[in-house]
Every structure is written in structure tokens, then in C-alpha cells.
Amino acid sequence: MRLVQIANGDDRRVAMVEEPDLVLLHDVTSTYALALRAIESGQKITGLAESLRSTERMAYDTVYEGTHSWKLLAPIDVPGDPQKLLVSGTGLTHLGSARERQSMHAAAGTTPDEVDEAEMTDSMRMFEWGRRGGRPAEGLIGIAPEWFYKGDGSVVKGPGDALTIPGHAEDGGEEAEVATVYVIAADGTPHRIGMATGNEFSDHVFERRNYLNLAGSKLRECSLGPELVLNADFQDVPGNVKVLRAGSTIWEKQIRTGEANMAHSLANMEHHHFKFAGHRQAGMVHVHFLGADALSFGSGIRLAEGDVTEVQFEGFGRALRNSIHAEEALAACVQVKVMQ
Q: Please, which residues have CB within 8 angstroms of residue 146's CB and are 6 or more apart in sequence?
């Protein structure tokens, strides 16, 4: 089952995707409220959604293309309280992106397989640790993956929204990923309610200057959607990512995600995220990005004003499209008032 959130002014609805239509649900205005209701009543979210289906339908094409009065939102938010949503991620999870990072060694006349641990960058060393210890047997704890904070709910953009390269940034680049979505129950138990197509969007130029800039490079907007997949098969997920400029594709790549293509198991990543008590606060929503397989930045692409990114994964519904908006360079310092 796949759900979307839509809005028309201050009015909001949740709908099930039944191509070529959206089937509206009654008595619920957000996927967050739907998830809380399912958790509190002990129901499966899919069963609850089915019980709330109405006879109202919309043509998905018109909503998706932006010609309808109703607009697609990100598939998860906390309406009116974005501080209750935490966005984070795990990097160095995919074999493809690790090979891209390792390509610097190939330029020196060696292949990735010829580089021993003493010659590895810290990033590659951490990836290898994950490959060796990130998939423990069920019930056991594996090695901790890389982890980063991205922001609260205010940084999450929906389908069709612009992703902004802020005036203080050196770059903005797409990262085509799947993101997992969790809601924390009243007793502190995390509930994974679904997955969504995501664009994690980072400042790769700033990160490349020094890997210690990673934390700052991630403090950017991101996008999700259009659909929240409630029963996703995340074993082996093929996808496609492209960048369009003036209507023409300037870069495109077939990608793969899913546990079969990752150094860490999903269970291991979830344990190391939710082992922190602060991540198990009742009513909180967590959106966690699971890592990218390929980046246009690695092929020398620099996103610019008006470019469009498109990400799609098999089984995850329609493609996530976002335009790029580049702010003018920051000309003055942010002023802080001192309280006397």
C-alpha cells in the first residue's frame, strides 16, 4: 500500500494510490495522525487505512503534474510542529558509492582491491568495517555505522518543491536514497511505518575540502515522496536518478539500494539509531536516509539554478522531482543580539 498527503490551502487529506487514481481517506488529515491512531489502537496501519477509504477519487496525474487545486506534500510531517520530526542518515552503506570514493586510489595506479587497510582513507576504512561487521546474526549487535544529523521537519520538502542551495553553501548535490519513516509510541517504542523515495541533498564541495566537514555539509534541505510505502520490499531495489537542465537530461544513472546492496543490515542501522534514549521520545517522528549508490557530483556535475533532479525506485511509486534554487551569496554575517 502507498499513501500520499495532499493539501488545498489549509485543507489536508490523506489518500491511497490506486493508479491512475488517488482514493481519499475520511476522518484523517495526515499520515502522522493515521500512524498514531494505528499504534494506539493496536492495528496495522494498512488495515486502518483500508477501513477509512472513502468513495472520493482524484486523477493522480493532475495532482502529480501540479495542475490540480490539490498539491502533493511530503508523505510525512508533523502538522504545525516541525520540531517533533528529526531527519538523520547513515552514510558509507552502499558498495557503489564506496567504489566511487575508492577511485582516487585507482588514479594513483592501483585498483580498489589492491589497497590495503593502511592506505585507506578513514571513509573507506569505515565502509570496510561495516562490510565485515554490519550484518550481525538476528538479535546480535553489529558495528556502528556512520551517522549524521540533517535537521528537523522544516528542512523536508515535498515533490515539486525547490531544493535551495543557501547563500553560505559552496554546492548543492542530489543524493538519491530510500528513507525510512518512524513514529515513536507513548511507551517509547519506535514503529517503522514505511519507506519513501528521497533526495538527501548535500554540499559535496564543502565536504570534499575535508571529511571533517561532513557534519556541516549535511545541514541542507532534503525531499521525500511522493508516496509513503507501507509494505516495501527492501531486499534488492533497482532505481534511476537523473539531472535535467533546460529540459534535457545531462546525467543519468541506474542505481540499486536495498539490504542486498548495503554493508549494514537495516536492523543494525535501526539499533544504532534508536539505542539513544533521546531518539525514543513519545510522539516524535524520525526520517532516516539509508545511503546513496551514486552521485552526479562524482561525474563532475554541479547543479545550478533551474536544474531538475528526478529519483525513482522500483516499487516505490512515482518519481520524486525537485527543481534547484540557488540563493545569492551571503554578503553579511548573521547578527546575534546579546541580552543584557
A: 90, 91, 92, 126
How many angstroms separate the CA atoms of 286 and 46, rounded?
A: 19
| Residue 19 DSSP label | T
Quick: pLDDT tens for 121-153. 787 888 899 999 999 999 999 999 999 999 999
Task: Using DSSP, state whether 139 is helix, strand or coil.
Answer: coil
Residue 196 CB neighbours (<10 A): 27
Would you state the cell numbers that stand for residue 124, as one nine-digit string?
573507506
Determine contact, residues 94/293, Cβ cutoff 8 Å.
yes
Torsion of CA 245, 251, 256, 262, to 10 degrees: -100
Q: What is the pTM of this model?
A: 0.94
Rounded-to-integer distance, Cα 116 and Cα 158, Å = 43
- CA 88 vs. chain centroid, Å, equals 9
Q: Find where cell 504545525 sits.
A: 80
What does DSSP say about strands 2-8 and 222-229: parallel, antiparallel, or unpaired? Answer: antiparallel
In what helix (H) or strand (E) does residue 227 lie, and over which residues does it extend? Answer: strand 222-229
CB neighbourhood size of 21 (10 A): 16
**Alpha carbons 72 and 267: distance in angstroms, whole number:** 31
Neighbours of 314 (CB within 10 A): 13
On whether the CB atoms of residues 256 and 312 are closer than 8 A, the answer is: no
Written as one letter, the residue type at 52 is L
Query: For residue range 160-197, what is the model confidence (pLDDT) as tens digits?
Result: 999 999 999 999 999 999 999 999 999 999 999 999 99
Q: Which residues of 111-149 are buried (b: 16+ CB within 10 A; e: fewer)?
A: eeeebeeeebeebbebbbbbbebbbeeeeeebbbbbebe
